[in-house]
Design brief:
heterodimer, A: about 110 residues, mainly beta, seven-stranded mixed sheet, four-stranded antiparallel sheet, about 0% helix, about 55% strand, B: about 110 residues, six-stranded mixed sheet, 11 strands
Chain lengths: ~110, ~110
């Protein structure tokens, strides 16, 4: 069974630009979550989606947005990029939110903002 | 608000020694997770602990959960260099996938 995939793996952008990151969950998984990892703030929750509905959102500005499609694939978008948005963005999936299974993480997208 | 604290933040161990990483969380949680992260890599799931008194073991790692004390431990037995990594604990509630992570413990095992 293929794992969680994320594209692209690396991105370099400049301040003010916008970026879209993509996540494909494990087949059959309907729950997708996004996290930001930085050396200073650690791992922070961004959003979670289940059946195309955003169920929860972390404490991030409105520049961060996301969505989930009917095939459970998810995208996140960051507009008007700032230097502080440089981070590893991780996507995770699980069959459903009541599952006793773990959340499986993808390899991440490393975003560098210059 | 749910908070998770890990200690120590950094652990330098000699091979063949034993040590424990501690994870405290502030409010009731349904699930507790341990993850491993190698430098530049993603998170690898180690354990999911669901109930009070739960204990799980895999190789030289053993995790336990005390929900009354809101404490989980990750015990390392006879450490080897391959265990060098950063270990995170995290908690969430059933019905949400919002994981709250600890700060991580960077483990270095040397000969």
């Amino acid at each position: 069974k293929a794992g969680v995939t994320q594209t692209p793996r690396y991105l370099i952008k400049t301040r003010g630009q916008q970026v879209t990151l993509s996540c494909s969950p494990i087949s059959g998984h309907r729950s997708v979550s996004w996290y930001q990892q930085t050396p200073g703030q650690g791992l922070q929750f961004l959003f979670e989606y289940f059946s195309e509905t955003q169920r929860n959102k972390g404490n991030f500005p409105g520049r961060f947005s996301g969505r989930q499609f009917s095939n459970s694939r998810s995208e996140m978008n960051v507009s008007t990029l700032e230097l502080g948005d440089s981070a590893l963005y991780l996507c995770a999936s699980r069959p459903q939110t009541t599952s006793t299974d773990t959340q499986y993480f993808g390899p991440g997208t490393r975003l560098t903002v210059l | 608000e749910l908070k998770v604290e890990q200690n120590p933040l950094f652990l330098s161990m000699q091979e063949e020694k034993n040590y424990t990483i501690y994870c405290n969380y502030s409010t009731t949680s349904d699930r507790l997770y341990w993850y491993r992260q190698d430098p530049g890599k993603s998170l690898e799931s180690l354990f999911v602990l669901l109930s009070n008194g739960a204990v799980k073991q895999e190789g030289r790692l053993m995790a336990s959960l005390d929900t009354k004390a809101r404490l989980s431990t990750l015990h390392i037995t006879a450490a080897v260099h391959d265990l060098s990594a950063t270990y995170f604990c995290a908690v969430d509630m059933v019905g949400t996938d919002k994981l709250i992570f600890g700060t991580g413990t960077r483990l270095q095992v040397f000969p």
